[in-house]
Design a protein that fits this description.
The chain is of the alpha/beta class. 37% of the residues lie in helices and 15% in strands. It is built from ten helices and twelve strands.
Length: 350
């Protein structure tokens, strides 16, 4: 009988202590095989229909993970493209409320409009800062820089009370934290971090009524029948969120299909318990060393002020972490072990 441990060990054999999933997730063995097979199909001139089927299977898998109907899921390449569509849908002068120092791909599209009022407040004051004239609250579910988890239920309640829409970037949590995407107007995520896919895929969950979005990036794949929409204007856009698709990166989706299958096999709740146990073990070890991480309870990301300068030393020791604004950032995922945590603590104690 396969267990969490046996499934994971069959898929991963990192050659170092890899604690940098917040930057890039490791690829499962099945994903590497799927990408190689897709590349071979292209090299051999094999019909690529199965790869387009992979893209639809990925959409369906993400919808299950997000807890929404598949018709609400669009697929693209980056969070920023969806932020651009959301920004374009807002009237001039609309207020967008964000968290201070949130990830650029989330906030920058609203600044680029030039005629929106973008207001940033501390993350822990986001819900209380929603005002009657706030049109949209945009926030990452987990902060890239330090792992702090947003109080999304409070944000959602405040936004609803003031008639504002909500936009959540789940790139740093999708794969280890339940998404509950149906509770928000828009939710986007990339596929190459905690979802452990190749680069080049992103998702966006939109409302059933599309939330006022215009499919500005629509090409042939956005048609109700894509292969009948190759020439001239697309006269019949898809009646689902697929109208917001861009042409899929086929090799990426071939691999991502198997990555998401693994996540579904393991279960997000089991992954969450595993990841948080390791993060808490690291926090406890830091306390014994006299270091205090950024408070981020319930997060798989641990950020330690003042230790970022040790990243090169740790890399040389075979431990992959990040230096983010002077903080040492360690991100724990399903392929990590307690031995990885102890190895990191051992080097930090030297």
């Amino acid at each position: 009988m396969e267990t969490f441990e046996t499934l994971v060990r069959a898929e991963f054999a990192p050659k170092n202590v890899y604690l940098n999933t917040a930057s890039n997730g490791l690829l499962p063995a099945r994903t590497v095989t799927a990408v190689q097979q897709a590349v071979r199909m292209r090299a051999e001139g094999t019909p690529l229909g199965p790869l387009y089927e992979d893209a639809e299977a990925v959409r369906a898998s993400f919808a299950r993970l997000a807890g929404v109907p598949v018709e609400r899921v669009a697929t693209g390449a980056s969070v920023a493209e969806y932020g651009g569509l959301i920004a374009a849908s807002l009237p001039a002068g609309a207020e967008v409320l964000t968290a201070e120092a949130d990830f650029a791909s989330l906030v920058n599209p609203f600044h680029m409009r030039g005629d929106l009022k973008v207001r940033a407040v501390p993350l822990d004051r986001l819900a209380e800062s929603v005002r009657p004239d706030t049109a949209l609250v945009a926030v990452s579910s987990a902060q890239s820089a330090d792992g702090r988890v947003a109080d999304l239920p409070a944000v959602r309640a405040a936004a609803r009370a003031h008639g504002a829409r909500t936009y959540v970037d789940a790139s740093q949590s999708a794969g280890w934290l339940p998404m509950e995407a149906g509770e928000y107007d828009f939710l986007a995520a990339v596929g190459f971090k905690w979802l452990m896919g190749p680069h080049g895929a992103a998702f966006c969950v939109v409302p059933e009524d599309f939330g006022g979005l215009t499919p500005l990036l629509a090409g042939w794949v956005a048609g109700e029948v894509p292969w009948d929409s190759c020439y001239g204007p697309v006269e019949n856009l898809a009646g689902s969120a697929r109208r917001f698709d861009i042409s899929p990166s086929l090799f990426t989706f071939a691999g991502l299909r198997t990555s998401l299958e693994l996540i579904e096999e393991l279960g997000v709740s089991a992954i969450q318990a595993h990841d948080l146990a390791l993060a808490d073990r690291f926090r406890a070890g830091l306390a014994t060393l006299g270091h205090e991480p950024v408070p981020a309870p319930g997060s798989a990301i641990v950020s330690v002020p003042g230790l970022g300068h040790r990243q090169p030393e740790l890399s040389a020791a075979g431990i992959q972490v990040s230096d983010r604004t002077g903080n040492l950032r360690a991100a724990f995922h399903l392929y990590n072990t307690s031995e990885d945590v102890d190895r990191l603590l051992d080097v930090l104690s030297a």
